[in-house]
Amino acid sequence: MNRLELQVAVAYAQVMTLSERNILFKGEIGVASVVLLGVASIAFSLLPVYPQALQAMAFRVSGPFQALGGGEPDPYVPLASMVCAMLYACVTLVIIYRYFEKTYSPEILYIALFVFSFTLEGSRIMVPLKLTYALPSVYLIMASRVLLFGRYAGLLSLFIASVYASGLKVPKQRIMVGIIIVLTLMITQNIPIDGLAWDSSLCMISGYPALFKILQGGIACITVISFGISAYSRGAREYLAIALGSLLVILGRGLLLGADTWISPFLGVALLGIGAWSICIYLHRVYLWL
Question: Which DSSP helix (H) or strand (E) runs through 198?
Fold first, then answer.
């Protein structure tokens, strides 16, 4: 695909004006900032409860660094992971807005939605809140569905960004965003959740974990491959760096969200930061001339 054809493809996919998309970005930044400040202020006031939450966990999440730190999870790592995830969303959304404020890119809308999904990690605060105020289990189930919605919608948004990049014809952006929301709601509303049990990352126990791990792994692999294919289908080598960036953010996301030892959140944030930087820099180069 030459540059003229690429410009036509961009015009076809660009159903949101820059001003409309930028308003959306500003709204995401505002919501992410408010949630971060609100949840962080509540979370740190509940510090004495986190050891109790860890003692009451149903099982420990699996991960590559679980044998470190004496082989035992730390009760305050889930708090650090939650706050880092929300802070990552705020900072990265600002960077996306600054880089693409005047630049068309169909993919960046979905990448921003992926980043914004980290804001919903704040719903994990419900576990220490329940232990402190003896809240009914229904609140834990509701918070868990919000958490699952954010995680699945975020990964699906990154996948859609790679589909746009590969040049495949997909529905218009507003329709596509609606499809993501409806599909994710259908999935999360039908997942069985145990309202009385959570793991070492303060996530409630949900049904079919193996099935969803395989599904998420498959979507992640297809996402990275699709970005890589875009380098050849669109004649833009920058997509190879974007593919690498997407791999890093997916790996970093897995480490950060499932962390229960101190090395995991720091390494996860580092991978997320490097990956997001690579995606933004090289995606901006692709569309800079338009």
Answer: strand 193-198
Q: Where are the beta strands (DSSP E) in 99-173?
A: none
Q: What is the dihedral of CA 26, 31, 37, 38, to 10 degrees?
A: 160
DSSP annotation of 51 reads H
Q: How is residue 277 written in tokens? A: 């930087």
Angle, to 10 degrees, between the axis of helix 77-100 and the axis of helix 106-116? 160
Distances from the Cα of 231 to the Cα of 19, 52, 239, 281, 282, angstroms:
29, 50, 5, 15, 11
- pTM for the whole thing? 0.91
| d(C-alpha 82, C-alpha 62), whole Å | 17
What is the per-residue pLDDT across 76-96, written as a single tens digit (0 to 9) for each? Answer: 999 999 999 999 999 999 999
Report d(CA 50, CA 58) in Å as an integer.
15
Write out the two tokens for 89. Answer: 């969303």
Angle formed at CA 277 by CA 154 and CA 212, multiple of 5 degrees = 25
Cβ atoms within 10 A of the Cβ of 39, count?
Answer: 20
Measured between alpha carbons, how far is 248 from 271 in angstroms, rounded to an integer? 5
Q: The tokens 């003229």 sit on which residue?
A: 4
C-alpha–C-alpha distance, residues 252 and 265, integer Å: 8
- The alpha carbon of 144 is separated from its chain's Cα centroid by a whole number of angstroms, namely 15
* Residue-wise pLDDT tens digits, 203-239: 999 988 888 999 999 999 999 999 999 988 888 889 9
